[in-house]
Design a protein that fits this description.
alpha+beta, about 10% strand
Length: about 230
């Protein structure tokens, strides 16, 4: 009898470089994240008095506020307000986020002071930025309920300047604001941030400023927990 031909295995299919078919949808951002980013873009599209978008300003000072209107972080930039703030709030690696100094989840409002420093020499630009940042830092420090802000390295004392107009906006959409503002959610997040920051401190030699930030976070947690306890009085 004639022998049957040996069965052969089909070659394994290789990964295709073809784009996904119409029935395969790429993974999208979570709805709340997408909604917050939309609000941030809307904020940066705000026009200043000269008709320019505030997000297009190359130089500026910025501040973040939490859900209680408490100022929590201040910074300066010479690389663009929108790009610098975007890196903070989209979890791209910045020192403040990487070191667990700042939890982007806690940022409910943004405030910016766009600066037009293009005609100054670079050294003068840096000097003015430092003075403007110090001015904002001192102003917001006086407004803080605990007299402290999370910056690991506060601006060096210098001469203050007359500040330009500032722009401030809440970046959390109304439909998710109540959930994000809920004190139990924030207490859990804040306690976790403190734990991660404490671990960083325990594993390396750190500055006094970072230890001060840990204390500030602990005071902020105590303030929030005490306010929550009053709800049961």
């Amino acid at each position: 009898m004639p022998r049957k031909p040996l069965a052969t295995k089909k070659p394994a299919s290789l990964p295709s470089n073809e784009p996904p078919g119409p029935d395969i949808k790429p993974v999208q951002l979570a709805a709340d994240v997408a909604a917050i980013r939309k609000e941030i873009r809307k904020f940066f599209d705000t026009l200043d008095k000269s008709g320019q978008k505030i997000g297009s300003a190359k130089f500026g000072i910025y501040a973040f506020y939490d859900y209680d209107g408490e100022p929590i972080y201040i910074g300066q930039t010479y690389e663009g307000l929108s790009s610098r703030i975007g890196r903070h709030l989209t979890n791209q690696r910045t020192d403040a986020v990487a070191m667990n100094v700042l939890d982007p989840f806690e940022v409910a409002e943004i405030r910016v002071w766009p600066l037009d420093l293009g005609e100054l020499k670079k050294t003068d630009q840096n000097s003015y930025l430092n003075r403007a940042e110090y001015t904002v830092f001192q102003m917001l420090l006086s407004e803080s309920a605990i007299g402290a802000i999370l910056n690991e390295k506060p601006p060096r004392p210098t001469r203050t300047v007359k500040l330009t107009d500032s722009y401030r906006m809440r970046i959390i959409p109304s439909e998710i604001y109540p959930h994000r503002k809920h004190p139990d959610i924030r207490i859990a997040r804040r306690a976790n941030t403190i734990a991660m920051l404490a671990r960083v401190i325990s594993e390396r030699k750190v500055s006094r400023g970072l230890r001060q930030t840990l204390l500030t976070q602990a005071r902020r947690l105590e303030m929030l927990a005490a306010a929550r306890l009053k709800d049961y009085s």
